Amino acid sequence: MKIAITGGKGGTGKSIVATSLAVEFARDKKTMLVDADVECPNDHLLLSVKRKKYSTVYQPIPKWDFNKCKKCGKCASVCKQNAIVFVKGKYPAFVKDVCIGCKACIVACPENAITTTKKEIGIIYTGKNYNVNLVSGELKLGELASGEVVAEVRKHSEEINKKIKADTIIIDSAAGIGCPVIASLVGTDYIVAVTEPTPSALHDLKRVLYLANYFKIKSGIVINKLDLEKKFCLKIESFAKKNKIPIIGRIPYRKDFVDSTIKMKPVVEINPKYKKVFKEIIIRINKKAENGSSKIS
Q1: 225-262 burial, b for 16+ CB within 10 Å, e for fewer?
Q2: CATH level 3 topology of 2-47+130-288
Q3: CATH hierarchy code of domain 58-120
C-alpha cells in the first residue's frame, strides 16, 4: 500500500507523522519511506539516517547551433520563463538557471537551430535506519523544477522497491498544493492529511482534501498538536463529519516531539507510549482504506 502524508500548511508535523508511522509499520512489515519534500528534506535527520548518493536528476535544456540561427527571436517570444533574452540583430542569450525545460523554444524555432543538452537539478539519496528504507530527493539550490525532482524520486523509489519489495510505501510530501505535492500524491492508495487546530491549517487542509477528492484518493485526517487549541479542534471535527472524512488520529502537543527533532530520534523511541498512538492510526488507515471519501463541500 502507498500512503501519502500531506496537509497543506507547513509546520503541522507531517514529517514527524511520516517517520513515526514508517518506524511502526517497519516493526511488522517491509517499509519504505520516500521523502518527497525535495526543497527541504529532513526525514533523514529525524531518523538519523546517513544518506548515500544514489542518482543525479537532470533536466533537458536548449542548446543553440548559431550556424543555423537566423536571429529571428521566435525562441524568446515563446519562453514564458524569460530564460531567453533577445535583442534584434543579435543571437539569443540563454539564462539556464531560469529554464524549466519546457522545450517550447525548440518547437518554435523555424531553422531547427535548437537541440537539447542537460543540467543537474537534483540528487536522490538512499539510506536505512530503524528497519526503514529511506529514499530522499534534494533539489539543487536555485533550481525551480521541484515537481520534476519529486517525479524522479517516485520513479527511482519504484525501481529500488523491485529489490526491497516493501509492503508499505510512505510518501512524505512538501507543504502546499502545487506541482511537487501533486507529484507526491498521484498513484497513492491513501492520503493522511495532517493538520493542527489553527484557522490557517484548517484552510489549507480543505485545499489538500480537494486535491484528494479530485484524484479520487481515499483520505483521513490526523489532528496534530491537539492541545494547542482544543476548542478549534471542534471546527475540524465538524468539517470532517460534514464531509464524511474520518479522523484517524489525534496526537497530543508534548515536549517529547520537540526532543525527537533535537535528538534526531523517532518520538516512538523517545517515549514508547506513543507507539500506541501511531499503531492506532495504522489500524484505522488499514480499515478506512477500504472505504471511499465523499466530496468536499
Answers
A1: bbeeeeebbeebeebbeebebbbbbbbebbeebeebbe
A2: Rossmann fold (3.40.50)
A3: 3.30.70.20
